[in-house]
Amino acid sequence: MFLINCPFCGEREQSEFKAGGEAHIVRPKQPTELSDDEWAEYLFMRKNIKGVQFERWNHIHGCRKWFNMVRDTSNDQIKAVYKMGEKPPVK
Amino acid sequence: MLNYNHTIKEEKSYQGLQLSEIKPVMKLIVRGKKREFLSAIGKSLNMVLPTKANTSTQSEKLTALWLSPDEWMIFSNGVVNENTNTYDTETILNKNISKLDLGAVVDVTDQFVRINLRGDKIYNLFQTGSPFNFNDFKSKIGSVTQTILAKIDVIIHNQNKNEVNLFVRRSFSEHLFAWMNDSASRL
Q: Which of B88, B92, B91 is nearest to B44 (CA)?
């Protein structure tokens, strides 16, 4: 249980949100030229680190908007919240 | 509203809390991002859409709730004619918004049920099933929030002091109403 500051609605409880996995994964420009391994790497492989991680979240029971979050996965501390398309604040 | 079955059949009254459905009420969801969209809505309805988060605006006949930066719900303050499914507001908006590709207008009259809560124990009831902090909401008339109540998505609108409108999807309304009655009976 922790509070998340939705960039649109303000501070809300975590149960209103849904985690959307790692953020800033760039889709390959030429998917047809990738090998199966490279494609699988893009599609499935995630860092899942212990420590500060960049994530996508969706305020699914509120404004239904996606946004990015920088979260420390070891203690759930939220370092920053920023909208989609914005530059991540420097770590 | 034609062929319309009510899920909430009765009004309920408790110490400091009254629950009832207001029906039939016209409800529309409008979506759009462009500046022209906002001005076209303003001109067609003679009211401005709230652009500040978690707020609402009201005209004589309509209320507009902020749901998201590009989404609003508009509902009629009073009840509408029960014998038709066409609404002037929707016709006007279809003509001035949808047809001109400025945004989207969706009739959600049948999708949402409007439950009216009155009394000084409203927030004691919400407290039993919602993670939302109602402290600021309570004191600001016109506040809007989308949150969860007993694990059900709801839109809550602070209409007046000790009067709140709650919008819930029709399929969840019967269960939510039963839950609210159960919870209210032991406040």
A: B92
CATH assignment of A3-83, among 3.40.50.1000, 3.40.50.300, 3.90.1440.10, 3.30.2270.10: 3.30.2270.10
Domains of chain B as residue ranges with CATH: 11-24+112-187 (3.30.1360.120), 27-108 (3.30.70.1520)
- Tell if the CB–CB gap between A9 and B69 is shorter than 8 Å: no
ipTM comes to 0.84
Beta strands A52-58 and A66-72 are antiparallel
Q: Between chains, do A61 and B148 touch, taking CB under 8 Å as contact?
A: yes
Q: What angle do CA A84, A86, A90 make, to 5 degrees?
A: 120
Distance CA B136, CA B1 (A): 36
Residues from chain A contacting residue B54 (CB–CB below 8 Å)? 9-10
- pLDDT tens string, chain B, 187 residues long: the values are 556 677 888 889 999 999 999 888 999 999 999 999 999 999 999 999 999 999 999 999 999 999 999 999 999 998 888 888 888 899 999 999 999 999 999 999 989 999 999 999 999 999 999 999 999 999 999 999 999 999 999 999 999 999 999 999 999 999 999 999 999 998 8
Q: What is the pTM of this model?
A: 0.89
Domain locations along chain A: 3-83
* Category of B184 on φ-ψ map: left (φ > 0), alpha (ψ -120 to 50) or beta: alpha
How many beta-carbon pairs below 8 A join chains A and B?
A: 36
Does A39 contact chain B (CB < 8 Å)?
A: no
A15, B68: Cβ pair inside 8 Å? no
